[in-house]
Amino acid sequence: MSGITRTGRSTWRNWAGNVTARPVREVSPASIRELADAVRQAAEDGLRVKAVGTGHSFTAAAATDGVLIRPDLLTGIREIDRTAMTVTVEAGTPLKRLNAALAREGLSLTNMGDIMDQTVAGATSTGTHGTGRESASIAAQIKALELVTTDGSLLTCSEKENPEIFAAARIGLGALGVIAAITFAVEPVFLLTAREEPMAFDRVTAEFDALFAENEHFEFYWFPHTGNCNTKRNNRSAGPAAPPGQISGWIEDELLSNGVFQLACSLGRAVPVTIPAIAKISSRALSARTYTDIPYKVFTSPRRVRFVEMEYALPREAAVGALREVKAMIERSPLRVSFPVEVRTAPADDIALSTASGRETAYIAVHLYKGTPYQSYFTAVERIMTSHGGRPHWGKVHTRDAEYFAGVYPRFGEFTALRDRLDPERLFGNDYLRRVLGD
């Protein structure tokens, strides 16, 4: 199979529709050699180059006016090593295909985010994470990486090989090279029991530390304009598997979480005054349920309602106070917020630009329905988050710049120095990277 090249300025759009780009050409390489050739050719033509996944980032991290590399043909599992308990996959492999393939082999990732439409390279490069007491981001499960660098050569890094590059490149924002393949740690597939339960805001926030400590994976959603939350606890189980019933599962995951929610969001966007009443109904519609299944069927769920999102990582001890500030801000403002606010956690890790780098972390994510003006809400929330030393998710809406990041990431200078070494001419640069990493 050989790759595909399209020239001419067609418009690329991200999933949420809030970012567009008009590259000079798009390339879909079908092999590592073709990927290397595309990078070399871009450099010769004086064009910047960016790889794009499925466009699930809300920032312009992958946007380019030069060469856009689509990894659609660079997919599939290259090797499963059952001695080392690793899997090596091509960069463009969607997480949903990786999860299904691993399950067939009796294997699983340890943790993952709540959607699986992204490519493995896109998800890891921006720091996609789930929630977990001991495990969280997908990038923290990486054991080795292959990067195509500015001259088209292939650089492999791991804890043993080029360790200083490995320390940064696992969450590299596409700034250090184009990822060709990733090796992840895997483990024998296991069962998780999910317990979903409505709970009052005051109770969740009062008991947050205990709920975090008692569960391997804890998260909750607060519905603005109400005192209601929905909690989710996922813990390993001896089984047996007991997935949601087909009908009840469809009602919860499709009808309520996607279909009815879509209608509610559309009505709220058209008639904002209805949002508080809709929120009260929505927050009571989801009932308690418990089910047991393999990890990806518990961690992930379909997301068909399109939205725009901002998420900040805070020191875990600051999260409850910050969330209460967000609640108070919404209550005294004219804002009408139709989407729940999501709270998750992560342990500290050792990746230079990980939002959990060097500190126990909690995440607060705010969303608004696609097409709703979000600036005033996100600006007010961002003001609260930055007052607590928050680190924004690299793939979600924020207004922070390199000067800010130098203050909240102790290893920021380590990353930018490595970038200066690997890409002094900024072949992999774009406007977003100029803002967040500096020039």
Summarize the topology:
Blueprint: E1 4-7, E2 12-13, E3 20-21, E4 25-28, H1 32-44, E5 49-51, E6 67-69, E7 77-81, E8 86-90, H2 95-104, E9 107-108, H3 120-125, E10 142-148, E11 154-158, H4 163-169, E12 178-185, E13 187-188, E14 191-200, H5 201-206, H6 208-214, E15 217-222, E16 228-237, H7 246-270, H8 275-285, E17 289-293, H9 295-299, E18 307-315, H10 319-331, E19 341-346, E20 361-369, H11 375-387, E21 391-392, H12 402-408, H13 412-422, H14 431-437
Helix pairs in contact: 7-8, 10-11
Description:
It is a single chain. This protein is α+β, with helices and mostly antiparallel strands and 439 residues long. The protein is built from 14 helices and 21 strands. It has helices at 32-44, 95-104, 120-125, 163-169, 201-206, 208-214, 246-270, 275-285, 295-299, 319-331, 375-387, 402-408, 412-422, 431-437; strands spanning 4-7, 12-13, 20-21, 25-28, 49-51, 67-69, 77-81, 86-90, 107-108, 142-148, 154-158, 178-185, 187-188, 191-200, 217-222, 228-237, 289-293, 307-315, 341-346, 361-369, 391-392. Strand 15 and strand 16 form a beta hairpin. The longest helix is centred in the middle third of the chain and has 25 residues, at 246-270. The chain is globular and about 60 Å long. The two termini are 38 Å apart. The mean pLDDT is 92.
